[in-house]
Write a structure and sequence with these properties.
This protein has 2 helices and no strands. By secondary structure, it is an all-alpha fold. The protein has a domain of 38 residues.
Length: 66
């Protein structure tokens, strides 16, 4: 009989969200607020910014821009 060392399964480390601080001109903040008020679920400002960034990235990817 051969001895096999005890092996444990280690879950891959889950990546934590990146903290990202952003300062905007007041007019851009107003535009984000106007956009978020048009959404059915009224997202927070942070969530609205995430959604708008994601939309911009998806559009850029579809258009093949870099």
């Amino acid at each position: 009989m051969t001895y096999e060392p005890y092996q444990t399964y280690v879950e891959p480390m889950e990546r934590k969200p990146t903290r990202f601080e952003l300062r905007l001109p007041p007019e851009m903040g107003d535009e984000i607020d106007a956009w978020r008020r048009q959404q059915a679920d009224l997202p927070s400002r942070a969530e609205a910014a995430r959604r708008l960034i994601q939309l911009a990235l998806e559009i850029e990817q579809k258009q093949g821009c870099s």
